[in-house]
Amino acid sequence: MLSSAAHAQCSQSSKSGAVHVSRADGSAMAKWGQGDPRWIVEERADATNVNNWHWTERDATSWSRSKLEELLVGIAVGNEAGSCEISDLKQVEGEASCNSRKGKLIFFYEWNIKLSWKGTMKESGEKHEGSVEIPNLSEENEVDDTEISVSKKKGDGDVLKDLMRTEGTSKVREALRDYLKLLKTEFTLGMILPTKTSAGPELAVKKKLSENNVQDSVLPISLDTVGVKIPTVKILLKETFDSPVEELYSIFITKELVQKFSKSRAVIEAKRGGKLQMFDGCITGEYIELLPSQRIVMKWRCRNWPHEHYATVALNFKDQATQTELQLECKGVPVCNEDSTRQCWQKQHFEEIRVLLQQPKVNTE
């Protein structure tokens, strides 16, 4: 049987039609047309957080750091006196997150940002440099009211400092506004899930996003509608196992060994186009490529993913004598399932395979 942890990670699902939700004691909680609408499972493939009622949170800190650097570094201004450019993101301290509750998104961000700028005088060619500081970019203040200070190292070149303080500051504010727009649109993809009453407007939102027509009021969502792409991420993992490469490779293509480490029934047809089924059907897929002791490529999905959506999983085996380095690349994972998919591989696959390898002998025949 599948462990409770594996069930928690991989087995939540719903089906179209009449759906009854039961308590642990078997009594019914709600069904179509009855009960509190917060508990009604809509006609959709992914039944998690139905009607977007429950509180969910996504950490935007790492994404924000990368986005701020992308938007701010390289900003350039110039006039008849010279030119300046923001050359480096010296410091970005703080955090950001997005929370969803009752179908609404709530944003929190607080940043202390320090930038370096370099400038060149037009006539003399003299070069000067300085700093731009944004001590408190937060949701408590509008971008236009956010303090931005410009300084320059000692010496001449105040005309360049004035250029950065006027035109430079204006462009910095514009970049900060772009960051907030993207935080509320690009980053939130998948947080507000579609219900059967909202599919029409959501298609229009996706079309606008694809045309880069971003507006403050747009709160984009992940769709599993046919023909509409859902936001996805790529997961990269690297593990080293105390096993010869042939032995580790065989664990992924031998039914008996898959059933041993997964502690559940499995269907393993280790050939091109062959079926893959693990954890009592929580994981399904198909083998695309099998290169003995070197590489396995699969179509792969969890049961609670949007209907008919598959990721592409590539397992690359690197022979290191008595050890094997395994490199995993999982492309096309729905954004809202990134953490659970990562845990599925690390906990339900890799950790259990290590336990299996510690047994006296792994029968690979």
Describe the structure.
The chain is of the alpha+beta class and 365 residues long. It has seven helices and 15 strands. Helix 1 (4-10) packs antiparallel against helix 7 and helix 2 (61-72) crosses helix 3. It has helices at residues 4-10, 61-72, 158-184, 199-210, 245-251, 255-262, 338-357, and strands at 21-22, 28-30, 56-59, 76-78, 82-101, 104-121, 127-138, 149-152, 232-241, 267-268, 275-278, 283-291, 295-302, 311-320, 323-334.
Please report which band the strand proportion falls in: under 5%, 5-15%, 15-25%, 25-35%, 35-45% or over 45%.
25-35%
The topology string of helices and strands comes to: HEEEHEEEEEHHEHHEEEEEEH
Strand order of the largest sheet: 9-15-14-13-12-11-10
As a percent range, the share of helical residues equals 25-40%
End-to-end span in angstroms? 24 Å
The total of helices stands at 7
Task: Give keywords.
alpha+beta; six-stranded antiparallel β-sheet; 365 residues; seven-stranded antiparallel β-sheet; 15 strands; 7 helices
Layout of secondary structure:
Layout: H1 4-10, E1 21-22, E2 28-30, E3 56-59, H2 61-72, E4 76-78, E5 82-101, E6 104-121, E7 127-138, E8 149-152, H3 158-184, H4 199-210, E9 232-241, H5 245-251, H6 255-262, E10 267-268, E11 275-278, E12 283-291, E13 295-302, E14 311-320, E15 323-334, H7 338-357
Helix pairs in contact: 1-7, 2-3
Short description:
The chain is about 25% helix and about 35% strand. By secondary structure, the protein is an alpha+beta fold.
